[in-house]
Amino acid sequence: MFSNTHFSKAKKYWYMGKFYDWSEPIFHPMMHALHYGTSTFEGIRAYLTPHGPAIFRLKEHVDRLFHSASVIKMKVLPFTKEEIIQACKDVIRENGLDQAYIRPLMFYSYGNLGLVPSFCPIELLIGAWEWGAYLGETGDKGVFGCIVPKRRIHISQLDLSAKLGGVYVQSTINGLEARERGYDEAIFLNLEGRIAEGPGENICLIKNNVLHANSASESVLEGITRSSLLEIAPDLGLKTLIAPITKEDLFSADEAFYCGTAAEISPITKVADLSEKLENPPVYIIGSGKPGVLTMKLAEAYRQIVTGKNPKYEKWLAYVNK
User: Fold this and answer.
1) Are 268 and 203 spatial neighbours (Cβ–Cβ below 8 Å)?
2) Per-residue pLDDT tens for 131-152?
3) Which of 147, 156, 282, 312 has the least C-beta neighbours within 10 A?
């Protein structure tokens, strides 16, 4: 039996077309994904709007889930995109949630335990619970990030446009190490020595009224929140630039922030550079050392959109009760 202590308001999860009580275990310990991380997943959020809960950019998330499935060689999927979209809405309703974090997980299940899952069926589960911003209150006050010594997995090694379960062990290890050293979150460099991304977030800068993001060529996942902000930015008078980001670009930025579905928009106010493995790593103050004005304006514009208060972007909302 499992408690929902860290999964607020979660009552049931959806697995292969049926609902199960949150505390009910149904998986075999020899399932392939448990041993090798052979899974793909999405993190999706639903927000309360004047028309009830709405899921932000649900179609784009499900499209990426299918892309990721193709990267991990899942050829015959158990459900269509339309069925998964409906199941995500059903999970919100079944749990009585107004706002939620939604986790679809597609994985190689029980069959064989060789590295090649020749006899493992592909299965899907979807859970949802109420979850605040990933970096918590720190994200509002400003995040103290650290550039970790180990480099991000490189685009020449793996298709990083896919969200694959096994890849995130690198994120877990470095996220834990950052916190053990007293920092709020990690920052990866790529093999070229430029800024890549956080363990589960993209990194954006603002300099001279330009919103600066990097691209897939920098060994990052081009996140859905990131792409949304690049589209929103001109509404606030910001120009946009997609180009490599150096360490010096980050240190000299007027403002910087993490962004992602879980983290939403979390300002970065200080960065320690651990990449040179110095005994006393230098610490750089970003801008004024406080959450940036334009970052917070972007965050508020984003909040207005996801809560259904900006009709221009209503196309991004999938209403649960419609």
Assistant:
1) yes
2) 988 887 666 689 999 999 999 9
3) 156
Catalytic entry in 9, 59, 73, 163: 163
Q: Cα separation of 43 and 7, whole Å?
A: 14
Task: Transcribe 28-71 into DSSP letters.
Answer: -TT-HHHHH--EEE--EEEEEETTEEEEETHHHHHHHHHHHHHH
Q: Using one digit for the tens of pLDDT, what is the confidence trace for 99-112?
A: 999 999 999 999 99
163 given a catalytic annotation: yes
* pLDDT for res 139: 60
- What domain range is 267 assigned to? 136-306
Nearest to 169 by CA among 36, 28, 32: 36
- Averaged pLDDT, 301-314: 98
**Whole-angstrom Cα distance, residue 152 to residue 39?**
20
Q: What is the CATH number of the domain that holds 77?
A: 3.30.470.10
| CATH number of the domain enclosing 205 | 3.20.10.10
Taking only the tens place, the pLDDT of each residue in 247-305 is: 999 999 999 999 999 999 999 999 999 999 898 999 999 999 999 999 999 999 999 99
Q: Is the pLDDT of residue 188 over 80?
A: yes
Q: What is the model's pLDDT at position 134? A: 86
In terms of domains, do 186 and 261 share one?
Answer: yes
Number of domains within the chain: 2
CB-based contacts of 36, cutoff 8 Å, min separation 6: 108, 115, 166
Other C-beta atoms lying within 10 Å of the C-beta of residue 151: 16
**283: Cβ–Cβ under 8 A, 6 or more apart, which residues?**
270, 271, 272, 273
- Smallest CA-to-CA distance from 215 within 192, 234, 237, 236 is with 192
Q: What is the enclosing helix (H) or strand (E) of 226?
A: helix 224-232
Same domain, 61 and 143: no
Task: Note whether residue 189 is domain-resident.
Answer: yes
